[in-house]
Amino acid sequence: MIYLIYVILAVLVVLCSTKLSAYVDALDKKTNLSGAFLGGVLLAAVTSLPELFTSLTAVLSLDEPQLVQGNVLGSNIFNLCIPAVLVLSFNKRYRQSRIAQSHYNTLYFGLAMYVCCALAIVSPFSVSLGFTQVNLMTPVIIVLYVIGIRLMKNDDSVEQEEESNLDLSIRQIMVRFVLFSLALVAVSIALTQVTDRIADALQLGTTVAGAIFLGVATSLPELSASVSLVRLNNFNASIGNVVGSNLFNFTILCFADLLYQKASIYILDGATLFASQVGNLLLFGLLSSIIMIVVLAARKSKAAVQIAAVLILASYVASIMLSM
User: Fold this and answer.
1) Type and span of the H or E element at 135
2) For this UniProt entry, which segments traverse the membrane (predicted)?
3) What angle do CA 21, 242, 78 make, to 5 degrees?
């Protein structure tokens, strides 16, 4: 019964996120904001709501900080599998597409955040914010995210001239956007509770449970949005959604570190970084991000894109197998 509930909640996540993606796409075409910013920041933040609220629930309600690590890092690796599958399935369309330069910057900032997470684990150093203690890397990651947003906001390297299919005013779009966002939050919190019960039933570690069940389920919004955008022949926004979501996901660790009062969010239960499930997720997440840069840079080469995409998929499978 618990598995059926998990599937139902996952379906609801997809339905809510599909509607949200449509509204954000309409804002893209009805406003003067850059497509890179809307896809990489606004749409990315919307589709990352499940990761955010499930992670906050994990630390505030379940007292499972490692579930947060598995959720965020597992989602990031799975997210990159989405464009990998899409470029394999629509290789010619992808090679003919135009990609915003800011997507490269987003991936570079993501690499820096992976390094920050590793440093937070191997060299834990806390700083006081007056009302709480956080790891030094937490404010560093926030600063990196803010800089990344500014770069996306000013990127007009790819222009879109399509008109929206939604016959709604901007205000009507925003009202619906808020309502479906609230629905997505409620479903995400329930999904966290169910995942914790599945982890107990299968006797899985909380990190790997987060990476498999929670990481995949909360990445369904990115999957739904990306597939929809590719159908609209908009690979640029599709990739922006994924890499922007990955960047936003790192800030979730920061929020969790801020709210988790018992200890730092970057804990390993006595294991060393390179012998832990978290270490595997960090390593393969870093590797997948580097390969994704190759997918973008070698866009005109069919063979190079296909090989790189397959390597991203292999990286995800390896990360799960080695974390079991």
Assistant:
1) strand 133-135
2) 6-24, 36-60, 72-90, 102-122, 134-152, 173-195, 201-220, 241-260, 272-296, 303-322
3) 115
Where along the chain do its domains lie?
2-158+166-323
Phi, psi (deg, nearest 5) at residue 271? -80, 155
CB 99 within 8 A of CB 158: yes
In sequence order, the β-bridge partners of residue 134 are 127
Stated length of the chain: 324
Question: Exposure of 17 by Cβ count < 10 A (0-12 exposed, 13-18 middle, 19+ buried)?
Answer: buried
The C-alpha atoms of residue 263 and residue 211 are separated, in whole angstroms, by 21
What pTM, to 2 d.p., does this model score? 0.82
Contact at 8 Å (CB) between 68 and 206? no
Q: 168-198 pLDDT, tens per residue?
A: 888 888 888 889 888 887 887 787 678 767 7
The full 3-state SS of 12-46, as one line of letters, equals: HHHHHHHHHHHHHHHHHHHCCCCHHHHHHHHHHHH
Which architecture does CATH list for 2-158+166-323? Answer: Up-down Bundle (1.20)
Residues 20, 158: contact at Cβ < 8 Å?
no
Torsion of CA 50, 54, 57, 58, to 10 degrees: -160
| 3-class SS of residue 262 | coil
Per the CB < 8 A criterion, the answer to whether 112 and 261 are in contact is no
pLDDT tens, 117-158? 999 888 878 777 766 788 889 999 999 999 988 887 766 666
- Taking the C-alpha atoms of residue 56 and residue 65, their distance in angstroms, rounded to an integer, is 9
Q: Per-residue pLDDT tens for 61-83?
A: 777 777 788 778 888 998 999 99
Q: Could you tell me the CA-to-CA distances from 50 to 8, 110, 182 in Å, in that order?
A: 15, 20, 11
